[in-house]
Design brief:
With 88 residues, the chain is α+β, with helices and mostly antiparallel strands. It has helices spanning 17-34, 66-72; strands spanning 2-3, 6-7, 40-42, 56-61, 64-65, 77-78.
């Protein structure tokens, strides 16, 4: 599954040191959020899968998007249909 409502910093091929650091923080925080209790997955668009075959879903707990939590904490951007730079 790919979280469909956000874009997080890359950890495998970061564009800069800042992106690498933020990517590691985002990964750790997402694990905390996912392990905190039951979540619901929601399809947000007509597009079911990404180019790699992963299901595109938003992740919610108690009606709140976990992606929005990451955005609020500066660990993700809202997905706008393209990647924004983390190195600027």
């Amino acid at each position: 599954i790919r979280i469909s409502d956000i874009n997080t910093p890359e950890i495998s091929k970061p564009g800069c040191a800042r992106e690498s650091r933020l990517g590691m923080r985002a990964q750790k925080r997402l694990h905390q959020l996912l392990n905190a209790g039951p979540v619901q997955l929601q399809r947000l668009s007509d597009r079911d899968r990404d180019q790699y075959g992963r299901k595109l879903r938003a992740v919610y707990r108690n009606g709140r998007s976990l992606g929005e939590v990451l955005v609020a904490e500066g660990l993700a951007h809202r997905w706008k249909g393209y990647k924004e730079s983390w190195c600027g």
